[in-house]
Amino acid sequence: MISNLQQAERLYLLRHARSGWAEPGSRDFDRSLSDAGYAEAELVANAAADREYRPDLVISSTAKRCRQTFEAFSRAFPDLEDARFVDELYNAPAEIYLEIIGATQGVRSLLLIGHNPAIEEVLARLCGHDTVGKTVPDGYPTSGFAVLDAKDNSWGLSDFLIG
After folding, report:
1. Residue list, annotated binding site
2. In the chain, how many domains are there?
3. Which residues are annotated as a binding site for substrate?
4. What is the CATH number of the domain that holds 147?
5. Residues 26-42 as b or e (16 or more Cβ within 10 Å = b)
6. For the segment 65-102, what is each residue's pLDDT rounded down to a tens digit?
7. Which of 121, 131, 80, 76 is nearest to 98 (CA)?
8. Which one, of 15, 83, 75, 89, lies nearest residue 55 by Cα?
């Protein structure tokens, strides 16, 4: 399964920015970014643009906070054209994320916007638990942006940004 991911040369894993609490009577799925989350999303998107971490394709959860995080990236990369929103990424285990990534073909760089704990588990499966422990010892933060590069039939973490 993981070897199928080698179709992309670079993989970006982004956990959505900080969200507010669910309003009474509303669903978790519909939670918006908090004011701090909007700022985080802009910071990480601009940092990614400054380092020229431009994805060829974005696949994002359909949850509101993921869509709002993506909007910051669409402002930082105004020519970003290919974005797909996938219901299955919401509340999904890492296996679903890996299946979706593995089914992606013909792109050099892929940005995946999703949720924890799945994003952290995907990073651990691709780069190893030791790498995760050293990189994000307190857990994968909101607006955490991992840059993974394919190397010799495996993945290596080459950068990690926090908004």
Report:
1. 65
2. 1
3. 65
4. 3.40.50.1240
5. eeeeebbbbeebbbbbb
6. 999 999 999 999 998 888 999 999 999 999 999 998 88
7. 121
8. 83
